[in-house]
Every structure is written in C-alpha cells, then in structure tokens.
Write a structure and sequence with these properties.
Pfam family, one: Mga
Strand content: 5-15%
InterPro entries: Mga_HTH
Number of helices: 21
Helix content: 40-55%
Order of helices and strands: HHHEEHHHHEEHHHHHHHHHHHHEHEEEH
Number of strands: 8
Number of domains: 4
Protein name: Mga helix-turn-helix domain-containing protein
C-alpha cells in the first residue's frame, strides 16, 4: 500500500525534502533539490514555502528557514526526531487527502454517494473515481466496497477486518488513544480483558496498545453496529486452535450473543492478534504453543517440521534452540495464512514507500537467495504441500524462509590484525577498544596475519595483502578512530545482514 494513492507527487516531494533536511550532513540549496526531483527552481521554491506553512500548521515549535546564503535548515527542539516529524507530516497529508476523506465517509457514515459528494463538496465523478481507487486497494484482500451493502463491504468478513486494520495502521503514523476516524464506545478501546486473559507481557509499548485497540475496536464495531459475524470453516478453526486461550472471551460476559458466535470470534481474534502484533508474545508462550502443535498430529504441524528440516539441508545451516522456536512460530502463522486467508500480505508490508528513490538498492545477496528459495519451493518433492495456494502468493513464503535462514546462520567473524611501527601502545589500545565495543561473534583480534581478513596498519603491506586494509596513520587524530569504527561497522554489516546461501 503506497502513499502515492493518497498523496500527490508534490506532497511526496515535500515529505522527502523534510527528510533530507533531517538527515543531511551538509547544507541543502534549491539547486540540489531541483536536480534530485527534476523540477524547476520555481517549483522547489513553491514546495518549500508550502512545506514551511504545513509545518506551522502541524507543529508549534518547528520552522523551515532559509539562510542568507540561500540554503535551507530546520529550527526544532532536540527531542523532535526524524520518526516523529516525518510520521506526523505523512499523517497530516493522508488525513487531508481526498481518498482518505472518501474512505472515512464510507466506513464511518451511512451516506449515499451523492450525499458523500455533497458533504465533501466533491463532484460525483470524483467520488466514483476515489471509490475505484479504494477498490484497487481492497482487491488483494478479495473484497469490494459496496455503498449499497448494509456493512459497506462485500466479501469475506475476516478479510474486511484485515483490510480495515491495515488502512488504520497505514493512516495512524503516530500514537493515539483512539486511532479510529470517528468516536467509538470507550469499552471498544479498553484493553483490560486482553491484558488479563490473553497476552503474557506485563508491559506493552504505546504502539503495541494502539495496534491492539485497532484489532479489538474493528471486531467489536463490525459485530455490534453492522451485525457482521465471522463464519469460518472447521479446517481453519482447527488449524488455529492452539492460539486460543480458554479464559478469553472477546465479548466478556455478554449473554445476548450466541455462544457459537462468541467462540468463533474469540478464537479467530486470538490468532489474528498474535499474528498481527507478532512481537507481543513471550518466548516461553511461543514454546508452549509450538509444543501443542508438535503433539497434535495436525497436518499443518507435520508440514512445518518437514519444511524446516528440508530447508536447513538445502541452505546448509543448523537451527539454534531459540532460532528453531522463532522459525517454527513464524512459519506456522504464515502457513495458516497461505492455506486459509486469501490475502497477499506483501502488498501491504513490502511496498510502503513514499517515493521511487533511485538510490534505494535491493541487496544482491537477497536477490540471489530469493531466486534459490523460489527454486527450493517449486521442487517436485516440496510443491505437493502447496498445490492449493496460488503461486504469486508464495512470494511471501520466500521472505519468511529468507528470514529463517538469516536468524539461524552465524555471521562470518571479522578477524583483525593490528600492526603499528610508530609506537608500541596503539596496538593494545585499539585491540582493547574494539573487543570492548563489538561482540566476540562479530570480531576477534588475531596475532597471525594469515588468519586476518582485515589489516589495521600504519604501513603499506604490499601487493600480496589480499584482504581489507585500513591505513591508520595518526594515532593522535580523533577522526582516525571515528573512521576506523565506521569502516569496521561496514564490514560487520556485510557479514551480519543478508547472508548468502551458498
């Protein structure tokens, strides 16, 4: 789901100008921006003037300024970091976009299309065009916005709720007590029942709480005001049974709701919450859930064990104890999705970018790994498990298996040989500083130059030195130490992330 559906190109550029101002280590002039965005100087001057006005509307204490030399800079408080500012501005532009205003009218009111047009002061053709775009966003969820339908949607109710959750999550870039576009009963936002009877962490972050409120609020709103209940088949309910908590009832002690409806809603909610807010579950609780599946004899549990074993042999790695638990739990959730839920989650999670940045580059190791993992999935001995799943949705499984490979594969260690001819103390100083700053898994200091893959030296080591070399010339220059740390961090990054399947 991309911002370009909600925002104009001008607004996307304004967000990126703000981002450049926040992260740039050098002064930014209009000519830099005209080259980057391929627009005229007059356009940049207009965009920056509008951005300055927008910042004034959203914030009380941040100003976009232009120096006497003609470069742009921001005056802001120290606590206002990049995430805070960028997300606030994205949220501001989304809230005021015509697409979101139409969506808000659809899900929050009972207005007809002519009434929506009149209320928003839009033409009928504009409203119809926005509804077409919204249905483009809804298409991967295999649902359709239908104004004539009592609940405003046609399609599987589970998918409708997932769509609404993703829309809310996409729109709410900052933390709110009520993330919904309209007032809803406070009881729909209260988390006491969930915190007491469902999840194990004693302390949740603000973002955790907001996402949980979204899922609970959507479920209770759809059942209470639209009388839309989940009607899931026994196969799905059987596969998610061990995510359920027997003491948890989404509706509390409400005797007016049929027991069967309460049971289905509560069981699906338990799964949906743990699958959507993945990190809220403790490691111990994941182990308990996995143990139940391993002892259940369910076909999906057998599939997972087969996949994990086969993939480890294919990619030539061994699971750590913690890695196997995380891998099993994540693969379990995703196989349930692939088997029972007709949604390609990559549409939402992988495409949330606000500009086509030519400097963004997909890691080459990931590209290579993806190709190999796809081949692994499509092998005859493996594909029998996925005969009922559309091939284009296996793209999600590629990401999951790549993650499983990454967390269970030990990074290559950086072995550093340090040599100084100017004094006898810098070598010991650097060795101590580096081993204190980085873990032993990331790097080690070696006395054998043949074992090293990095030389730190104040001398030229000759043409026969075929490993990385850092020339450390002046031991009294603090910038030398800074550059050394940056150089080593880059090498560790290359070893640590996006490991390559050989």
């Amino acid at each position: 789901m991309r911002l370009k559906y909600f925002l104009s190109r001008k607004e996307l550029i304004k967000i990126e100008i703000l981002d450049d101002l926040l992260i740039s280590q050098k002064r930014i002039f209009p000519k830099d921006l005209t080259r980057k965005f391929n627009v005229s100087k007059n356009s940049i001057l207009r965009y920056t003037a509008e951005l300055q006005e927008d910042l004034t509307i959203v914030f009380d204490d941040i100003t976009l300024c232009c120096s006497e030399d003609g470069d742009y800079y921001l005056e802001k408080c120290e606590w206002q970091n990049r995430a805070y500012l960028i997300n606030h501005m994205k949220e501001f532009y989304i809230d005021n976009s015509s697409l979101y205003l139409v969506l808000k009218a659809v899900i929050s009111t009972n207005l007809t299309i002519p009434q929506i047009a009149e209320t928003l002061n839009y033409s009928l053709s504009t409203v119809y065009a926005k509804l077409t775009t919204l249905n483009t966003l809804a298409e991967p969820y295999e649902i359709e916005i239908d104004i004539t339908h009592p609940s405003r949607f046609k399609g599987r109710e589970f998918n409708v709720r997932f769509f609404l959750y993703h829309i809310l999550l996409f729109q709410n870039r900052t933390i709110k007590q009520n993330p919904f576009p309209t007032n809803i009963p406070q009881i729909f936002l209260d988390l006491t029942n969930i915190e007491t009877n469902l999840i194990s962490p004693k302390k949740l972050t603000s973002s955790h709480e907001m996402r949980i409120r979204m899922i609970q609020g959507i479920s209770l709103y759809r059942t209470t005001y639209h009388q839309e209940w989940l009607t899931e088949d026994d196969s799905f309910l059987k596969d998610i049974i061990f995510f359920n908590e027997s003491n948890f009832n989404l509706f509390g002690d409400n005797d007016l709701i049929a027991t069967s409806s309460q049971l289905i809603e509560s069981r699906v909610f338990c799964f949906l919450l743990r699958a959507s807010v993945f990190e809220i579950e403790s490691f111990q609780e994941k182990r308990k859930i996995i143990s139940k599946y391993q002892q259940s004899g369910l076909k999906i549990a057998q599939k997972i064990e087969y996949i994990l074993e086969s993939f480890a042999k294919f990619a030539k790695f061994e699971y750590t104890t913690a890695g196997y638990t995380e891998s099993y739990y994540l693969l379990l959730i995703n196989l349930i999705y692939l088997k029972h839920v007709s949604i390609d989650l990559c549409v939402f999670y992988e495409d949330d970018t606000f500009s086509e940045n030519p400097y963004d580059k997909t890691n080459e190791a990931f590209i290579s790994n993806s190709s190999k993992i796809k081949a692994f999935i499509q092998e005859n001995s493996f594909s029998s498990f996925f005969t009922k799943i559309p091939s284009h949705k296996l793209h999600q499984l590629v990401y999951i298996l790549h993650y499983i490979f990454d967390i269970n594969t030990q990074p290559k260690q950086l072995n550093i040989f340090i040599q100084f001819s100017k004094n006898i103390h810098t070598e010991a100083l650097l060795a101590h500083s580096l081993t204190s700053s980085f873990s032993s898994e990331a790097l080690s200091i070696t006395k054998n130059p043949d074992e090293a893959n990095l030389f730190v030296s104040d001398s030229y080591e000759g043409k026969n030195c075929h490993v990385e070399h850092f020339f450390f010339e002046n031991t009294y220059n603090s910038l030398e130490y800074q550059r050394l740390y940056q150089f080593i961090t880059r090498l560790i990054y290359d070893n640590m992330f996006f490991k390559k399947i050989e």
